[in-house]
Amino acid sequence: MDVKPLKFLVWIGSSKKDLKNFPDEVKDVMGYALYLAQIGSKHQDAKPLKGFSGAGVLEVV
Predict the structure, then answer these.
(1) What DSSP assignment string belongs to 23-56?
(2) In whole angstroms, what is the distance from residue 47 CA to residue 4 CA?
(3) Nearby residues of 27 by Cβ (< 8 Å), 6 or more positions away
(4) For 46-57, how does the pLDDT look when each residue is reduced to its tens digit (9 = 90+)?
(5) DSSP assignment, residue 7?
(6) Full-prediction pTM beyond 0.70?
(7) Which residues lie closer than 8 Å to 48 by C-beta, 6 or more apart?
(8) CB 19 within 8 Å of CB 27
């Protein structure tokens, strides 16, 4: 099996600190969505972020 390195994750502003304050259930979903993005996949609740067309920027809703 070919294992690829995870894509780099960039935290903007207080986003990482803010995520740590969410309920555990939300942190689990967000963590999994971020992991999927890092391996080149997409969470079922992720959609392209408006204003970043073509940049591959997703938001999880």
Answers:
(1) -HHHHHHHHHHHHHHHTT---TTEEEPTT-TTTT
(2) 24
(3) 19, 20
(4) 888 888 777 678
(5) P
(6) yes
(7) 57, 58, 59
(8) yes
